[in-house]
Structures are given as structure tokens and as C-alpha cells.
Write a structure and sequence with these properties.
Elements (H helix, E strand, L loop, with lengths): L11 E6 L1 H18 L6 E7 L3 H8 L6 E9 L12 E4 L9 E9 L3 H11 L5 E9 L12 E5 L5 E2 L15 E4 L1 H4 L1
Parallel strand pairs: 2-3, 2-5, 5-6, 6-7
Antiparallel strand pairs: 1-9, 3-4, 8-9
Bound molecules: 1-O-pyrophosphono-5-O-phosphono-alpha-D-ribofuranose.
């Protein structure tokens, strides 16, 4: 395995999901998406920045269904220093999504607030359909129940980084999902 020959970054306690397992799961997710959208003319994948950029890149290159990509950036923080739980759009889509089949692509669903906000916000844009695909979910952290149509892995409530996920904007490019050492964020 690739990671076996690599020295773990000193901030990482252990690997939760290795690169090979992630890639195998994405193959399966892409197969499901292809099957479900087989009769659709075109699918619009909407990646939620920044975390989803690597998952999005791997997923989109495995899909056979005709599709295009776009991105949104959201923030779960209010204008103050404290986390308010409020979600706001930092960067919106560049195109109208009326009448289109939209698949939201997320790296992780944690409290569910971001995905719930997206469902409600996009609802008024009169899409043909709206579904979600997330690589990771932390069900223990949910503040609001949200449905995830395509889910890679359910994970425990630990601080994970890698494969798009960060700590203070670092570690996004690790090829695996790793558990951050508690000393790093304490
Ligand atoms: C993360 C992740 C999701 C959101 C999920 O983004 O990418 O968008 O949090 O959390 P929730 O379910 O509690 O709403 P983050 O705000 O860390 O920004 P980033 O993707 O730019 O790192």
C-alpha cells in the first residue's frame, strides 16, 4: 500500500481511510450515479468549496453520464469571530439551474447545516431534480436531519483531514483521510 512506505505527517495520529479504499468507494459511487442518471441529458455537479475540490475531481472523471461542473463556496460562520451556526453564500453559481438535474458534491456532512441550507436555498431555483453526494458523514454531530443520496463513508466524531479536508487550511492534499492529533488543535 502507498501509505505504508510513506512517513505519516507529524500532525496525523492515524489513517482512518486509506487512499485505495477511498478510490474504490468513489468507483462504486460513480457507478450508482451513472445508473440513476442514465436517462438524463445532462447532469450538473455542484462542488462545495473548498473541501470538495479533490473529491469532485475524482468523481467527475469516473462518471460516464454527460455532465458539467460548477462550484459554490459557503461559510458556516457569521461575520463575528464566534461560530454562529449561520450559513451564507460566499460564491454563488455562475449559471441558472432552472430545469436542470443538480447533484451537490460535498466532502463532509457534519452538523448538516450547510447541506440543509443548500437544499432550502436552491429549492426556489426550480431545478428538475436535486440530490447530494458526500464522501463523509458524521451522524453523531447532526444538528439538523438531512438526507444524503450518495454517501461514501459514515465516520466517528474525530477531527479528520486530508483528501480536501483541512485544519487551518492545511493537509487538504493528503491522499488519505487522517485523524488529526489532539495536540495540534488544543
Ligand atoms: C466543511 C465541509 C462542508 C461543511 C459541512 O466546510 O466542506 O461544506 O463544513 O459542515 P456542516 O455539516 O456542519 O455544515 P468548511 O466550512 O470547513 O469550509 P471548507 O470546505 O472551505 O474547508
Amino acid at each position: 500500500m502507498l501509505e505504508a512506505s510513506m512517513k505519516l505527517h507529524t500532525d496525523i495520529e492515524r489513517i482512518l481511510i486509506d487512499a485505495e479504499t477511498i478510490q474504490r468507494r468513489i468507483d462504486e459511487l460513480a457507478t450508482q450515479v451513472d445508473a440513476d442518471y442514465a436517462d438524463v441529458d445532462e447532469l450538473l455537479l455542484v462542488g462545495i468549496l473548498k473541501g470538495a475540490f479533490i473529491f469532485m475531481a475524482d468523481l467527475t472523471r469516473r462518471l460516464h453520464v454527460p455532465h458539467v461542473v460548477d462550484f459554490m463556496a459557503l461559510s458556516t460562520y457569521g461575520p463575528g469571530v464566534e461560530a454562529s451556526g449561520a450559513v451564507r453564500i460566499v460564491m454563488d453559481l455562475r449559471q441558472s439551474i432552472a430545469g436542470r438535474h443538480v447533484l451537490i458534491v460535498e466532502d463532509i456532512v457534519d452538523t448538516g447545516l450547510t447541506l440543509d441550507y443548500l437544499y432550502h436555498t436552491l429549492e426556489s431555483r426550480r431545478m428538475a431534480s436535486l440530490r447530494s453526494c458526500a464522501l463523509l458523514s458524521k451522524a453523531d454531530q447532526r444538528k439538523v436531519e438531512v438526507h444524503i443520496n450518495y454517501l461514501g463513508f459514515e465516520i466517528p466524531d474525530v477531527w479528520v483531514v486530508g483528501y480536501g479536508l483541512d485544519y487551518a487550511d492545511r493537509h487538504r492534499t493528503l491522499p488519505y483521510i487522517g485523524v488529526l492529533r489532539a495536540e495540534v488543535y488544543r
